[in-house]
Amino acid sequence: MLPLVQIKNLQVSFKQENNTVQAVKNISFDILKGKITALIGESGSGKSVTALSFMQLLPKQATIQGQMLFCQNENTAINLNTISEKEMRQLRGNKIAMIFQEPMTSLNPVHTCGAQVMESLMLHKNITKKQALQETIALFTKVELPVPTQMVKRYPHQISGGQKQRVMIALAMCCSPALLIADEPTTALDVSVQKNILQLLQKLQAENNMAILFITHDLTLVANIANDIVVMYKGEIVEKGNAKKVLQQPQHSYTKALLACMPTTNSKGKKLAVVNDFMNPPQNTIIDYEKISTKVSNNEVVLKVEKLKVFFSSKKNIFGKITENYKAVNDVSFEVKKGETLGLVGESGCGKTTLGRAILGLIKPTEGNILFDKKNIATCTKNELRIMRKELQIVFQDPYGSLNPRLSIGNAIEEPMFVHNIENNKNNRKAKAIHLLEQVNMPADSFSRYPHQFSGGQRQRICIARALALNPSFLIFDESVSALDVSVQAQVLNLINDLKNEYNFTSIFISHNLSVIHYISDNIMVMHKGKIIESGTANEIMFSAKEKYTQTLLEAVPKSIWN
Fold first, then answer.
1. CA distance 325 to 347
2. Cα separation values, 541 from 182, 523, 536, Å
3. Cα 548 to chain centroid, rounded
4. Which of 184, 260, 214, 168 is nearest to 36 (CA)?
5. Which of 39, 157, 227, 369 has its CA 20 to 30 A from that of 500?
6. pLDDT one-digit tens code per residue, 103-149
């Protein structure tokens, strides 16, 4: 019996103006029916290009060589690289389906969620609109969406990230495909939502006996769901085989590096390993994971939040009067000491980001006080806030969205210095910008380049450099590493620790990743439905959580690879 998929000597290259870039270099592997095969590696390793070439979704500049054999029955296979677009359309979304990394950009914003699934059903199954609606409601029930009869009428912007991903799964599963390609389907999701999505995929896979190609950079996920594993590095396969064997006894340096980069309960207080430690180690030396010193003052409070409330109107009557409020932040009080890193953890929608933005004065509180250096941010005028923002800076989750694509990196870093009159002339500002870039391990020639010319991890380093341009005393990191590869994440976390010791800034680190929060924070607050339900030291929350909700979050974290 043939494997469901046989990829033989696949090569993918892209033509550019002056050269050709080879993204995938002569790779071969099989995907077995009824099995989950994990394709892992960093951004740029060729994972998604491999999947998109299989779906024939690459741009025209791409050149594909080799064989991609898809087994339609027990004895015959077709080469997807040689079939026509018409033949591919019969397979795509029918026998071969794909769940993309970002459901918001994958779903059409002008059509309801139900209409998008119905379209695929009517196209491939040749059924009526009424039958398609009934099947869509049944699918939404199967993927455990709340109130499926109402969900079919909603648009993508009206539902949460986890719900959008469930709609994508329903869309992918509607024609019972033989192969499901899941490209980073849980990267930016909370641990509890991530756990639910993975359980759902496993359940549907078992029911339909389908094969799944699961693309990810998160090895803890792989350890819990995959049968086989394929590790890619710079367009090549460096290791493959049984998932458990590869993860417990890795042979290639790159696989060992990916495993070592992840924060664990034993990582706290030490520098994280990075890929270069394994791929280009100094000769005759042992990698030393040095301890990190901390400078937390036990006395001086720099931020004090008192009974803070941030409400948004959710319903109005015909006269425009607010009849119902959404309580994003509801009676929150806490203190942050000088030099401390306070971790703020919770699911999406719990109020983490709203709290962070209220502290910065980007959202006006409904009630309460935010005392920063004994000044109340909640009652400051616009001019007072503008002066105060020199001391308060934020690093956002999406580094590309927070950089102006029309401004060079140098101008982006110089701009806040110019606004706040830091450095007395252009030459001094340029010198400081280059110095900041070098501090975040970016080359000096980055100064004249633009955001699109950098990777996600490099852009996040640039955003950190920009945040430091004003020598702030307080920084908020809002999900700043959630979408980064584990290796890039380790580099950014090490960088934050280094800069914290150099600049001695105080910070709030917002995340839904409990391993990262435990590693980077001195103290942790757990937020749920707008309230702080538990707080304590990082070790107390991680190992001795008292609240049921915190315990549920910890239970949702994928089990260790070495279990």
1. 20
2. 33, 9, 6
3. 26
4. 214
5. 369
6. 667 889 899 999 999 999 998 888 999 999 999 999 999 888 888 99
Angle between helices 113-125 and 129-142 (to 10 degrees): 120
Q: How many residues does the chain have?
A: 563
| Mean pLDDT across 293-311 | 80
The residue among 221, 232, 186, 225 whose CA lies nearest residue 47 is 232
- The widest CA-to-CA distance across the chain, in whole angstroms, is 77
The amino acid at 393 = Q
Residue 14's identity, in one-letter code, is F
E strands in 161-226:
179-183, 211-216
Whole-number Å distance between alpha carbons of 150 and 154:
7
Q: Roughly what angle, to the nearest 10 degrees, separates helices 113-125 and 161-173?
A: 10
Sheet bearing 506-511, strands edge to edge: 392-395, 474-478, 506-511, 341-345, 523-528, 531-537
Q: Are strands 367-372 and 301-316 parallel, antiparallel or unpaired?
A: antiparallel
According to DSSP, the residues that pair with 63 across neighbouring strands are 13
pLDDT band at residue 297, thresholds of 50, 70 and 90?
Answer: low
Whether the Cβ atoms of residue 337 and residue 298 lie closer than 8 Å to each other: yes
Q: How far apart are CA 319 and CA 555, in angstroms?
A: 47
Angle at 185 between CA 513 and CA 72, to 5 degrees: 155
Element (H, E) at 528: strand 523-528
Run of H or E including 391: none
- Tell me how far apart the alpha carbons of residues 388 and 377 are, in angstroms, rounded to a whole number: 9
Per-residue tokens: 504 = 């001695």
Instruction: Find tokens 């309580």 and name the residue.
Output: 327
The residue-averaged pLDDT of 307-336 equals: 84
Q: Express each pLDDT in 411-463 by its tens digit.
A: 999 999 998 888 888 899 999 999 999 888 888 889 998 988 887 778 888 99
Give the pLDDT confidence score for residue 382 in this predicted structure.
86
Looking at the chain, the number of H-run helices and the number of E-run strands are 21, 20
The helix/strand/coil state of 349 is coil
CA–CA distance, 49 with 114 (Å, rounded to integer) = 29
Which residues, other chains included, contact 325 with Cβ-Cβ below 8 Å and sequence gap of 6+? 311, 312, 313, 314
Q: What are phi and psi of 478, to 5 degrees?
A: -100, 95
**What DSSP character marks residue 178?**
S
> Measured between alpha carbons, how far is residue 424 from residues 146, 348, 419, 428, 501 in Å?
58, 43, 12, 7, 27
Contacts of residue 450, Cβ cutoff 8 Å, sequence gap at least 6: 405, 407, 408, 409
Instruction: Report pTM.
Output: 0.80
What mean pLDDT do residues 19-45 have? 89
Is the predicted pLDDT of residue 286 greater than 50, yes or no?
Answer: no
